[in-house]
Amino acid sequence: MNKPRIIRILIIFVGMMSIGLGIGFYFAGYYQSQTRPAIQGLLWPDPKQLQTFATIDQSGQMFGIDRLQGRWSMLFFGYTHCPDICPQTLAVFNDLYRQLQGSAAARDLQVIFVTLDPERDTTKRLQEYVGYFNPAFIGLGGTIDQIMSLAGQVGAFYMYGDKSATGDYVVDHTAAVFLIDPRGRLVAIFSSPHQVDSIRERYKMIREFVERQTNT
Amino acid sequence: MNLYKNITKLLLVLAVSLPATLAAETAIVIHDAWINQAPPGTDVTAGYCMIHNTGTTEVKLIQVTSPDFGRVEMHRSIVSDGIARMVAQDSITIPGNGGLTLKPGDYHLMLFKPGKLLVAGDTVALSYRFSDATSIEVIATVRQPEAGQEDHSQHH
């Protein structure tokens, strides 16, 4: 006579347990998705939304915020008369780009070299320089004000050295690489030294994380 | 007779080894000399090598010259507080009992105004002059910049 009652209680009990577990899992998942993963250089939960800027690309076309939207961008700064660190960094990115080829993480990735030395780095020169490393890479220049309309927003720094008798000078510049998401937000800063494996793995993890945040 | 023979032997050994010992104090050997293939339109590039000093005392690299370039300078790339800078060096100290590697992101030669367009596989002549009056002629090979060259230990 008590059997149906016990079964009813059991059903209610199991039902409540399930609801409890469901709520628990839901919040656990929610909490997890909001927690900043431990990735060096990730700027989360406060990525910086970039505002409009106006630079000139290596083809002489205007390059503004719209050219960052809908793509992942890796941005770094330098100058073409830089014999040591800049070719090294470009070689690292060339390797990275090749390693990512064919993967989802490469489809909409653009690698962007921004000169901080517009006096010597004309559009034609940028085209030659960037194209030498990888024809898919983008080179940005313009007037120093145009360049700073972008560089200033990510906090990139430059300082010109004294000119030598032959007119040569060095340019001290920010060594970091800046990762910008398809919404034009600065989501990570990778400090030097730049290692292909480390940047590749962090880029993949950050991309996956940011995409998950954006979808939920 | 035997004693005389032994003394002669000892003197001979000393005579042979003494100059060798003196020379060993500043034994400099340079190898793996290479330079970056400069991107098109660029008239400056960087040179690297390994400098071994098997002697016990440090030696300074004081000048590098080349018939293949207008000018050669010694520099060191330094990244501090996130800023990459190149610092010209009057000399580069090569410690004894070891040596020093000129490598990307660290000590390097800055080579200005090549006499001709240099591409991977070409060779150039470099002359290294040291503080102990040693002068070493080296042939360096032109290479494409590589990603794997950067040393982990340079990160401070």
Key phrases:
heterodimer; A: 216 residues; alpha+beta; Glutaredoxin; 2 domains; eight-stranded mixed β-sheet; two-stranded antiparallel ribbon; 10 strands; 44% helix; 20% strand; elongated; B: 156 residues; mainly beta; Immunoglobulin-like; ten-stranded mixed β-sheet; 1 helix; globular; disordered C terminus
Explain how this protein is built.
The complex is a heterodimer of chains A (216) and B (156). Chain A is α+β, with helices and mostly antiparallel strands and 216 residues long. Chain A has 2 domains: 1-35; 48-215, Glutaredoxin. Helix content of chain A is 44%, strand content 20%. Chain A has an 8-stranded mixed sheet. A two-stranded antiparallel sheet of chain A has the order 7-8. Chain A starts with a helix and ends with a helix. Chain B has a single domain (26-143), classed as PCu(A)C copper chaperone (Immunoglobulin-like, Sandwich). Chain B has one helix at 2-24; strands spanning 28-36, 44-53, 59-65, 69-80, 83-89, 92-94, 98-102, 107-114, 123-130, 135-143. Chain B is mostly beta strands. Chain B is globular. β8 (171-174) of chain A pairs antiparallel with β5 of chain B.
- Helices and strands of chain A, in order, run as HEEEEHHEHEHEEEEH
Nearest-angstrom radius of gyration of chain B? 20 Å
Poorly predicted ranges of chain B:
16-24, 149-156
Q: Which spans of chain A have pLDDT < 50 for at least 5 consecutive residues?
A: none
TL;DR of this structure?
Chain A is an alpha+beta fold and 216 residues long. Helix content of chain A is 44%, strand content 20%. In chain A, strand 9 (177-180) and strand 10 form a beta hairpin.
